[in-house]
Predict the 3D structure of the following.
Amino acid sequence: MINEQLLRKNIVILNEITYKKKLRGLKKYFMKSYKYLTFKIMPNLTELGKKDGIYSVDIPTDYYFEKCYGKLQLLFSVKNDVVIIEDLVPHDILLQCHMKLLPLYHGTPYYQEKDLFKLKVLEKANERDIRKIEEIY
C-alpha cells in the first residue's frame, strides 16, 4: 500500500530493504522524528519544486543523539521530476536500532561503550553550562 502511494507521487526508494530497516529503527527509538518524516517531509517531497540534483533534509531529533552520532538526515535526489530517496543517515546506529534492542542512556540509544562515554561527557558539559548561566543571572 505504501509503495502504491509513493509511485503515484513520483517517489522511488533506491535501496528499499535497508531504508525500511532504518525506518523501523527510527520508529522504535525516535517516534517524534519518525512522525515528522512520515507526515511532514514525505508528503511534501514532490511539491518542493526542486530542480535536478542531490538534496538533504534535516530531521529534528534528540540533542544528545545529534551531538553523538550527527544530524539525522534524509538524503534524496531529483531527476526528471522523480524524487529518488537514497538514504537515511547516520547509517550504523539506525541499522543497529533495527537489529537488536539497544540500551538507553537518558532516552538516547547507544551500541558501543565509547558512545556511552560520549553521552555522559555531553551530559556533564551541559550541566556545567547550565550552572554557569544560573550564576550569571
Observations:
- The radius of gyration is 18 Å.
- Residues 124 and 130 are 10 Å apart (CA to CA).
